[in-house]
Write a structure and sequence with these properties.
11 helices, alpha+beta, two-stranded antiparallel ribbon
Amino acid sequence: MDRQRITLRQAAFNLPLLTLFRVSMSLELALNTARHALLAYQQALDVTGHNIANAHTPGASRQVVRLATTLPYTDPALHNAIQPGQIGTGVKVADIRRVRSEALDNQIWSETSGWGRQIALRDALQQVEAVLADPTTGGTSSALRQFYQAMHDLSNNPASLGLRAIARQRAVALAASFRRDYQSLVDQRTQLNQQVNLKVDAVNDLARRVAELNAQIAKIKAVGDNPNDLQDRRDQLVEEMAQLVNITTWTDDLGRTSVFIGGVDLVRDGTVNALTAAPDPLDPSVLQVQFSRDGQTAQITGGEIGGLLAVRDGYIPDTIDRLNALVMEFINQVNALHRTGFTLSGAAGGDFFVAGGDAQSIAVDPAILSDAGNIAASSTSGAVGNGNVARAIANLENVRFMDGGASTSEAYHRTTILQIAQAAQQAHADATTRESVLTQLRAQRQRVSGINIDEELINLIRFQRAFEANARLLTVVDSMMDTVINRMGA
C-alpha cells in the first residue's frame, strides 16, 4: 500500500507543468465565480431586507435586483486551436431598480387634483349654505315671513301702538338678518383668502423639497446609479402637491421631474418659480395667486386651492349679488307702497327702509325707529282704522317681483339657498366618485409597485439558498486548491 501511494505521488509530481497551470487557473476561475455570486446574492438579500423594512412606508416602491452574467473567460485551447471556447465567470448585480408605472402615477396625480378640488369645494359650499339656511329659529326667510305677518296683523288694527311696535321690531330684525347674511358671506370670503394663502405656502414648501431632491437625483443618475428611495420620496411630494393644485409633470433623462401649473413651470430641474398671494389690483380685498418670477397669474383650476378659489371668486360673489338684488328690490317695493300711505298722525308716508346700495347697509328709516306711529298703514289721511297700505305691504309676500316677475321674495331667497345646497351636494357626489376612482388606481399601483411581505419572504429564502450554495462551492474549491498546492507531489 505504501509503495502504491509513493507511485501515485511520483506520477502527480511528474505531471506536465502546463497541466498543473491549467488546473490551477480553472480552480481560480471557480473561486472567483463563487466570490461574485456571494457578493451578488448578499446584495439581493440586502434589497429584500430593505423592501421588508419599508413594507408600510408611504410612497415606497418595491425594488428588485436585476442579475446578469459577468463577462465570460475565453480559453483559446478549450476546444481546439481554431475555435476558442468561453467559460462563464459567474453573476453580478446589473442594477437595482424600483418597480413603478409613470403612466399610473400621472393618472393618480390627475385624479388627486380633481378630488382635492371637490372636497375643498364641498366643505366651503357647506359653510355658505350654513350661513344662508334657516336654523330652527331665525334666519332671513323666517324674518321675511315674520315681517309680512306683522304687517298683516297691523292692517287689521292699524291704530294699535303695540302692533306698530311689533311691526317695527320685525322690520329691524329683518334688516339685521340681511346685514348678518351679507357680513357672514364677506367674512367667509376672507377666511377662504387666508386658507388660499396658507395652501400657497404649502405648495411652495413642497416645490422646494421636490427641487432639492431633483438635484440629488441628477447627481446620482449622472454616475449611473438608481436613486430609488429619493425618487419615491420625490413622487410622494408631487402627489401631495397634486392634492393642493392642478399640475402636469415631465421627467428628463437625469430623472429630474419638472412640475407645471397651467403650462408655467413651478419646478424646473432644481429651481423653483414660487407662488405668491398678492392683493388683486381689481379687488384688493382678495389675494391673487401669481408666480414670483414675473407676476403672471397662476391658472389654478384644480386641487384644494382651485376649489377654494371657485367658491371665493365665484359662488360667494354670486350669492352676495343675489342677496343685494333681493334687498334692493324688496326695499323698492316696500318703500313704493309706503310712500302712498299716511302715518298715524295723518302725515304722508316716507321710506320704510333705507339702504346704500347693498344688503350691508339696509336699515329701518330713522323716522319709524323714533316713532312707530310713522308707519304709513293707511291709504287715507286721517283714517286711523284704514290699514290698506299695511295690507298691501303684507301682500308682497305673494307678489312675484324677483327674477323679472318669476319669483316671490321668499322663493327667490330659497332658490339662492337651494343653488348653494345643490352645488355642495354635487361637489360631495363628485368627491365620492373621484375617491372611488383613486382607491381603484391606488390598488392597481399597489399591485404593481407595492411591497408584498409574503413575496419578499420567498425571495429571502431563494437568495439565502443561492448564497449558501455558492458558499459551499467556495469551500469545495478552496479544498481542491489546497490539494493542488499543498498535497500534490508531497
